[in-house]
Design goal:
There is one protein chain. The protein is α/β, with parallel strands linked by helices. It has a single domain, classed as Vaccinia Virus protein VP39 (Rossmann fold, 3-Layer(aba) Sandwich). It has helices spanning 3-10, 19-26, 34-46, 50-71, 94-101, 116-125, 143-147, 150-155, 175-188, 210-220, 229-235; strands spanning 76-80, 108-113, 133-137, 163-166, 193-200, 240-241, 247-248, 274-281. Strands 1, 2, 3, 4, 5, 6, 7 and 8 form an eight-stranded mixed beta sheet that branches. α2 (19-26) crosses α3. The radius of gyration is 18 Å and the shape is globular. Keywords: Methyltransferase, Transferase. It comes from Nonomuraea bangladeshensis. One of its GO terms (biological process) is methylation. InterPro entries: SAM-dependent_MTases_sf, SAM_dep_MeTrfase_SAV2177_type.
């Protein structure tokens, strides 16, 4: 076991729910604790679409990766804050989809996670079986340190296009810093790279329910930034968005499902509660 994984295990918090583990629990994964499962059930009682919405986000990621690998020639991926979903069967994990869709036989993927359990379990269950995947302990809240990580710098070739998938933007509750993170990513990535973003929103929540939903979130997941479509568009300002632009995640390339997708929230895209977009970095 890597030394970093040992250090992460020592910091492990099991009694309070964490965002990446919540996503994993909602999507049917195993890299979570009872506190995370209890929180998912709590959310389901208030809004019985949480698990379906989690699957919709995961399917969005799958379609983005397959599109960029198959149609844009990308063979390097950095996935930030996905939770390294453990509910996917062998052969359908995100790095598997990239390899299957790409004409290259050497697609490289770096997962960046700040949750000790996610990092430890992913390193133990993925890295020993693949020379083309690495799991890094990093945090978008420390974007300069994350981009300077030795593995991030040496495992990926920063002279060629890279696809950066940011799934933790809602954890960046300081608006100025959130814009700085996007700026750092777009300026660090080589020309021809892509930046994908998924972001939680309350835009589809009925006005009469908003106060209760906000109160519940403040008690369970404080300091989570829930942005409107206009605010998410502002984060991507100046970037060239791949069609169909910024949309509900089930609407992004809905006609190109990945194997095993169940078209979560396809009949009610807004029920996903998340916007998604892919931007080209010139």
């Amino acid at each position: 076991m890597h030394q970093r994984a040992v250090r992460n295990l020592a910091k492990l918090e099991t009694t309070q729910a964490r965002m990446t583990r919540l996503f994993d629990a909602a999507a049917g994964g195993k890299n979570n604790f009872q506190s995370d499962k209890d929180m998912v059930r709590h959310f389901e009682q208030a809004a019985p679409v949480v698990t379906t919405a989690a699957r919709a986000v995961l399917e969005f990621l799958s379609r983005v990766i397959r599109h960029l690998a198959a149609h844009e020639g990308v063979d390097q991926f950095m996935i930030i804050g996905s939770g390294v979903p453990s509910g996917l069967p062998p052969g359908r994990r995100l790095h598997d989809l990239a390899r299957q869709a790409s004409p290259s036989s050497a697609v490289r993927t770096v997962y960046v996670e700040n949750n000790p359990m996610v990092v430890t379990m992913a390193q133990a269950t993925i890295e020993p079986f693949s020379d083309l995947v690495r799991v890094v302990d990093g945090d978008a809240h420390e974007i300069d340190e994350m981009l300077g990580d030795r593995v991030v710098q040496t495992f990926l070739d920063w002279d060629r296009p890279i696809a950066v998938l940011l799934l933790s933007a809602q954890s960046l509750d300081d608006e100025e810093y959130a814009h700085y993170v996007i700026k750092r990513l777009r300026h660090t990535a080589p020309a021809g790279s892509f930046l994908a973003l998924a972001h939680t929103t309350f835009d589809a929540v009925p006005q009469e329910l908003l106060p209760a939903v906000r109160d519940m979130l403040a008690m369970t997941l404080p300091r989570l930034a829930i942005r409107t479509k206009e605010e998410v568009e502002a984060l991507l300002d100046g970037l060239d968005l791949v069609d169909p632009g910024l949309v509900w995640v089930p609407e992004w390339h809905a006609g190109d499902p990945a194997p095993g997708d169940d078209a979560a929230c396809a009949d009610q895209p807004a029920a996903s509660g998340n916007y998604g977009a892919v931007a080209h970095i010139p």
